[in-house]
Design brief:
Layout lengths: L5 H4 L12 H12 L6 E5 L6 H13 L12 H7 L6 E5 L6 H11 L9 E6 L6 H12 L5 E7 L7 H4 L3 E4 L5 H15 L4
Parallel strand pairs: 1-4, 1-5, 2-3, 3-4
Helix pairs in contact: 5-6
Length: about 200
């Protein structure tokens, strides 16, 4: 049996499992249900507030085979997303891929249609770590994105993101998770793991 860290094992797999960010879940669901999906989102907030998890859940809701807005966790798209192997959901850590060449390579791939899902979703974590040249290279694509592409930029430091990038994104501010929500989640995990408390 292989070891799996608890934060990965119990990462939310549906919007219902998200702790402490209900207003963001509600807003993203409304966007999906009313077919008002933007091409670029900016998820801001402290570490550990669920920005990357929410980005993955949003990508899943956009590509689930049960229909847009669903997260069945049974179809091939959901299963591929759960195992981080979906060919149309590309996660980039801008802290280590922050150069203009890496962004140009990414932009080169944007024009190709999705292989498996409805949308290609690019999740760029720690986007504030990108170089000036990388931001400028990304800007052109954010100005004129193909219909099949969605960018989700995540950052703990939005003030370091170029204003021209910020202005092209729908911004969501994640707050620290309230103590009661944290306690409830920890008790639920402890119960699932068979810990006495």
């Amino acid at each position: 049996m292989s070891y799996k860290a608890l934060y990965n094992k119990y990462r939310p797999s549906t919007f219902e499992e998200v702790a402490g960010q209900q207003s963001i879940v509600r807003t993203l669901r409304n966007a999906i249900n009313s077919n008002k999906i933007a091409h670029a989102y900016l998820f801001c907030g402290p570490r550990g507030t669920g920005k990357t998890s929410m980005a993955r859940l949003f990508a899943k809701a956009l590509n689930c085979e049960e229909g847009i807005g669903h997260q069945c966790n049974k179809c091939s798209n959901c299963l591929a997303l759960n195992s981080s192997s979906h060919p149309d959901v590309i996660e980039i850590d801008a802290a280590s891929n922050n150069g203009v060449d890496q962004v140009r390579e990414l932009i080169d791939q944007v024009r190709y249609l999705p292989i498996k899902g409805r949308y290609k979703v690019y999740i760029i974590d720690e986007v504030h770590m990108m170089s000036q040249g990388a931001f400028n290279a990304l800007l052109k694509t954010l100005e004129e994105p193909p219909d099949h592409v969605i960018f989700i930029l995540a950052t703990t430091e939005p003030h370091k993101v170029l204003p021209t990038i910020l202005s092209r994104c729908q911004r969501y501010d994640f707050s620290k998770i309230d103590d009661n929500d944290l306690k409830a989640k920890l008790l639920w995990i402890a119960q699932k793991e068979g810990f006495a408390y």
